[in-house]
Amino acid sequence: MTEVTAALRSEFAPTGTLRVGLNMSNFLLTRTDTASGKPLGVAHDLGHELARRLGLPVVFVPHPNPGALADAANKNIWDVGFLGAEPQRANEIDFTAAYVEIESTYLVPPGSALKHANEVDSKGVRIIVPAKAAYELYLTRTIKNAELVTEPGADASFKRFVDEKFHALAGLKPRLISDQAKLPGSVIVQGCFTAVQQAAGVPKGRSNAAKYLAAFIEDAKATGLVAKAIADNKVVGLSIAALA
After folding, report:
1. The CATH classification of domain 6-100+197-240, taken from the options 3.30.70.20, 3.40.190.10, 1.10.630.10, 3.40.630.30
2. How far, CA to CA in Å, does 187 sit from each of 146, 150, 164, 173?
3. pLDDT one-digit tens code per residue, 28-49
């Protein structure tokens, strides 16, 4: 990897402390410690190791959802962010390749005629999806026939799915498994509509930092650091992304 110089540290962390932005709505990659109230998880562990290699102190900056994290990219709030790499976000963020992938699919109510993910985008079908999630951005680009409705947050989306009798709830498969348990007879359809690419990124204009971060993520995948973080945090439902 590139040598860590004072200039690189300064580009990464203009304040002298590496500010790592986290998306706290992704329960597979982030969580809050009940005792301290501080963020933990796979993304936290990777951010901590990045700071260690750079020789920088680190502070974690939690955001309630990926949209809020992405929207803050040009506001000098964070220096490195961990979130889904979506084309709409690449205008403000230089992303690495993915370090993990998460299948996104649909939950359908009891008795639904929908059996496979590729059947859901049909006339008359109403889909509800958490707003500003990476998979919501994907569906907004790709849904042609069904009606797509957004709702802030996964919990509120599930409630509306049940209360308003939507035909499908879009989400990350591990989250939908937990939702399925709350609605007896509901079914997770076969297949998926996408696999969300979870990556790291820096705000635009930090080209050397972006290059180092990309190499760090590849090294983290190749050396087992990502796998260790997943195991240490006892996470189920993540697939380590292929090397770039």
Report:
1. 3.40.190.10
2. 19, 21, 17, 11
3. 999 999 999 999 999 999 999 9
